[in-house]
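fyi for ur records
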Amino acid sequence: MIVYEREHDFVLTAQQEHGQVAGEMASYWKHELLADASHFEELVLAAREHDRGWIELDAAPFWNDYGQSPYSFRDFPLRPRFVFYQKGIAEVCAKSMYAGLLCSMMYTELFQNTLGANAHDDEDIKEYLNSERKQQSEWIAQLGGGEELQRRLQSDVDIMLFCDQLSLFLCMEEPGTPAARYEFFAEGLGCTFDACGRQPIRAEWISKEKVGLSYVPFTEEFTVVMPYKSVPKASIRKFGLLQAYRRAEWKERKVLITALNQDSH
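which gave:
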């Protein structure tokens, strides 16, 4: 679950909904920026389904007593999370081994970067990384191996990570939040790729319905729709998180993705 807090409620976005938007973004990727366009549909599939392991977890959100808020992807316990990650990856792999491999590589890259952040988690993370990398080696061998495949895989993972971050940007803070107040991504989107010189790309809310990028890797501007729920704190106190979440109505956040310099400066 992706969560942020307001005065009287929590805004919750299911990971799979965020993943669908990441896939939509990937579908607009400029083909000249791909290492190899022959696996483009599988790249879009992987971007769209990378978080499907969260579907069952997000259907019944958990309350974090320590944080006094719903658990989010940032603080959800690792061991059960890894079990569901592997379930989701297996489901993607059943549709496309290449797409499943991309999802697995995306997660190992993300968690490799978190090693050392919390010593209590490092053993769980190392165990997960070792397990996934062994599986990745088997899939790579089945796909023929070689440097060309590795280069294409890494390029596609970079694209997935960028679309993942941009989609997260849309649902981690209130639409229209001024750049000076960003809690996350204040330094730009950290996941980059060769075409932008590996420099962070700035993403800013131009308005409540529009986000601008300092570098646009997409073929055109487009609108994405992100379903979410705002769950009142009073309802959580009365019914508990699960019933309060189920009682809350679905809402939609529509956002146009465009170039930053068009009407922001």
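The first helix runs from residue 15 to 27. thats all i got for now
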